[in-house]
Amino acid sequence: MKDLLEILANIAAILTALVATVAAIYYGWDRKNKRLKLENYLSAAKLKNPDRHTHTTLHLMAQLGLTESEILNASYASRHIIRKEHVNKDTSLTDQILFEYQESPTS
């Protein structure tokens, strides 16, 4: 009985490591996918209409099907996406974050 428990414990340890590895790979792939989705959309939008090259979080949520958190995380992970503030003239406070694709990343 003791040998059986040791074997089961070893199998459980191996399975735990495998599941953790698969989860880490999926998480990294998913994060990269969302970053590329945001970069590609902003890049194409900038090429299509150079005069209107910044987009709000709400617009991106509607177009890309990402949450606000996912858009922010993707923008922070990207070297090509810059964030700008839109300041409310009445309150002098930032009321929106605007996202823009920049071909050459800033240092």
The rounded Rg comes to: 21 Å
Put simply, the count of helices is 3
Strand order of the largest sheet: 1-3-2
What fraction, in percent, of the residue positions are helical?
55-70%
SSE ordering: HEHHEE
DSSP strand tally: 3
Describe the structure.
This protein has 107 residues and is an alpha+beta fold. It has one domain (2-101). Helix content is 61%, strand content 17%. The chain has helices at residues 2-48, 57-64, 68-77, and strands at residues 54-56, 81-87, 94-101. The chain has a three-stranded antiparallel β-sheet with strand order 1-3-2. Helix 1 (2-48) packs across helix 3 (68-77). The longest helix is centred in the first third of the chain and has 47 residues, at 2-48. The radius of gyration is 21 Å and the shape is elongated. The mean pLDDT is 93.
Protein traits:
107 residues; alpha+beta; three-stranded antiparallel beta sheet; 3 helices; 61% helix
